[in-house]
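Q: What structure does this chain adopt?
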Amino acid sequence: MDDYLQTIVAKDGKEALEIAEKQQPDVILSDVEMPNMNGIEMSQALGQHPKTKHIPILFISAKNEESDRLLGLLSGAIDYIAKPFSQSELLLKLTNILDVRQKHQKKILGDYLCQEGGKETKEEATSEEVINPFLKAFLEVIKEKYTDSQTSVEDLAKGMAVSQPTLNRKIRSMTGKTPLEVLTEYRLNTALKMLQDAHSDANVSDVAYDVGFNDPSYFTKKFRDFFGYLPSKANQK
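A:
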């Protein structure tokens, strides 16, 4: 499985809980029977912590009575696989879980960026509740740094207190985009809001510089590629 996924191993539920709080993995695969803290207790603890309640849990266990399976699912797990199991089936289930989670976070990210661009959505309150905590923190860092045209992946990683590879991996796994792609989309949506502001007399060049582009021509190209029309036409949309 290590050939397909990057894994972190914990010896028991207590250690897994500590790792999950620090590294926020994309999914947790766990046995039910473990020392110190069993899988059911771990699942319940993860569900109560704001940094880990979003992480999907998949149980594998030799205990296969209906009551055991129901207990695992009631604790918050999204699936329960009995031993012995097919490794291919397990890998497919993990892949499907990650794919669904990515699509969900991509939609939430799109809603968030549209809100930043001044487009109202019906899911504003919901998105705030279900957005991945790491992604939410990343967007807060972007909000602080987007106006600086020199902002780099290194700057964004420092703002998140993680390494560049970690930032790239986690943002890609959640959204299918690179950190710089998210930054660019944030800038473009913010620019749209500014250009549509009826009380502003800022021209396209002013807006380009204000949102972190140091070349108005490049800004115009990126804006047209992203929205399908020139920034000079934004107040007509």
